[in-house]
Amino acid sequence: MGAIFMKPTLADQFEVAAGLASGIARYATSIGLDAEPIARACGLDPSRFSALGERVGLDRVCRFMEALALISGDDTFGLKSIAGFEQGASGPFGYAMMNAPTLRDCLVFLGRNLNKISETSICTLEIGSRAAHFEWTYSPLILHRSQFVDLGTAQTFNHFRAILGDDVRQVRVELERRRPTNTNLHKQLLSPNVSFGAPVNTLVLPRDILDRSNPRADARLFAIMSQYMDTIEPRGMDGKDPVAAVRLHVAENLASDRLTLADEAERLRMSARTLQRRLTEAGTSMQAIVDECRKEMAERLLLETGMTLSSIGYKLGFSAPAAFTRSAIRWFGQTPSEFRQKNRKTM
């Protein structure tokens, strides 16, 4: 039986290695949850989880994890799900992380390749005179990602701990997720130096521990896995499909005042006339794309978050609440509050 059909969303353009979903489902089963119907309800096909090289929607995996956390009544589900993963479960990426000769090698590899197993919107590594700062986050279209971020951070710390031992406690962690009810597990599995509500996820590592040797390293295997990962190109659509690129950029930046044809053309390094022609050929326009993206995001924010109506209107780029209300009536035949009350479902 395949996945339950769910209406495609803009967030479906972001993907993650299917092996991650396999480990999540394995842990869920170990604590007595029937993960398969939950996965299908989130638009995932469990039969694809173990296929080598398979990729699935990042947003749907995040929904899967949040649903499992809610059903289990455990807002540290993501951290605990690390127990469902075997060494090297993420394939060449995992084996490279395991066999990096030094912590520096491990960190540099992470910075170069994280986006290839779970697509990020920010992934940067800066090594300064006193510390290394690694920052990452995901598209704002991925609305529910706390559990997924916890899992990924815990996996990274497992690799760091294998190299540093107890000195892993020197690593500072800043997570964008809300502060959990109980922070003890984050301090235990990550670091005592953990904080929440950050703008992006950040790891800060003192420079003097970066050259620590990995006692389990296999330099030859690390080189082979690194070379393999280098052959994988990060996905990029700007040059391949400018219409899709405009739609995605608009959806991620609805509050911006620079969503004009001229600005998009400049960003894509083409003339406004060329971009206009491409949009016309696709049967759309800048105005239509902005309106479509606002409608989709309005529906998701109203039904999937507890944001206030004024905050949603601002996030969608409306200058006044009345403008948001008029658009909602045109889209849904209801005011924003009526639409939320009549259609909202618990996750």
Feature tags:
347 residues, globular, two-stranded antiparallel ribbon, 50% helix, 2 domains, 7 strands, transcription, five-stranded mixed beta sheet, H-NOX domain, Arc Repressor Mutant, subunit A, alpha+beta, 9% strand
Any overview of this molecule?
The protein has helices at residues 18-30, 35-41, 58-72, 77-80, 92-99, 103-117, 146-164, 184-189, 219-230, 242-252, 261-267, 272-281, 286-304, 309-315, 321-332, 336-343, and strands spanning 15-17, 55-57, 122-127, 131-137, 172-174, 194-195, 201-206. It has 347 residues and is an alpha+beta fold. A five-stranded mixed beta sheet has the order 3-4-7-5-6, covered by helices on one side. Strands 1-2 form a two-stranded antiparallel ribbon. β5 (172-174), α8 (184-189) and β6 (194-195) form a beta-alpha-beta unit. α13 (286-304) packs across α16. It is globular. GO terms for molecular function: DNA-binding transcription factor activity; transcription cis-regulatory region binding. InterPro entries: AraC-type_N, Homeodomain-like_sf, HTH_AraC. Residues 244-342 form the HTH araC/xylS-type domain. This is HTH araC/xylS-type domain-containing protein.
